């Protein structure tokens, strides 16, 4: 398993799920899907908890966090049509009003390395990924190893 920034890549996962399909092991395929969802759901819950200590806008935006479930990857989605401000709540804003205040109540920009802020992007989701990512990847690795051992015992 390799981690690349905000993504973790499990080499051979798609081949593994295809082998499970060929073997007709529906239960193990569902376990892989559930393991993906558990990781994404834990991340979303942790990010919501982090946002609980931030501004009202950020707390509201964090309620749009949701985990997605597939066999080959886990993802956390942020934003919705009802909360169009979520990206601004997560990353802040560079835009300023005539008085110099940051536009629409957003926090200062934390969108990328070019802003001069060295702590990394984001206010609640991305900091949670940095804080909890390695732990969640380790849990995921253990789940996949257990599923492999049960599906293809030697």
Largest sheet: 2 strands, antiparallel
* Terminal residue distance: 22 Å
Biggest sheet, spatial arrangement of strands: 1-2
SSE ordering: EEHHHEEHH
Number of strands: 4
Helix content: 40-55%
Nearest-angstrom radius of gyration? 19 Å
- Shape call: elongated
Structural class of the secondary structure composition?
Answer: mainly alpha
| Low-confidence sequence ranges | 1-5
List the helices and strands and how they pair.
Elements: E1 2-4, E2 7-9, H1 13-22, H2 26-51, H3 56-62, E3 66-69, E4 74-77, H4 86-91, H5 125-151
Antiparallel strand pairs: 1-2, 3-4
What report would you give on this structure?
This is HK97 gp10 family phage protein. By secondary structure, the protein is mainly alpha-helical. It has one domain (2-151). The protein has five helices and four strands. The strands form two sheets. Strands 1-2 form a two-stranded antiparallel ribbon. A two-stranded antiparallel sheet has the order 3-4. The longest helix is centred in the C-terminal third of the chain and has 27 residues, at 125-151. The two termini are 22 Å apart. Mean pLDDT is 82; it is low at 1-5.
């Amino acid at each position: 398993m390799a981690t690349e920034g905000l993504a973790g890549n499990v080499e051979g996962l798609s081949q593994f799920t295809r082998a499970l399909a060929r073997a007709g092991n529906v239960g193990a395929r569902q376990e892989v899907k559930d393991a993906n969802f558990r990781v994404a759901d834990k991340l979303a819950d942790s990010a919501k908890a982090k946002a609980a200590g931030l501004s009202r806008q950020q707390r509201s935006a964090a309620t749009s966090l949701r985990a997605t479930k597939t066999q080959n990857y886990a993802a956390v989605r942020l934003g919705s049509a009802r909360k169009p401000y979520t990206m601004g709540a997560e990353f802040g804003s560079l835009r300023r009003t005539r008085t110099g205040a940051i536009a629409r109540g957003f926090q200062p920009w934390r969108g990328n390395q070019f802003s001069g802020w060295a702590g990394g992007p984001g206010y609640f989701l991305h900091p949670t990924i940095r804080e909890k990512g390695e732990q969640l990847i380790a849990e995921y690795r253990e789940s996949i190893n257990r599923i492999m051992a049960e599906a293809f015992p030697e």
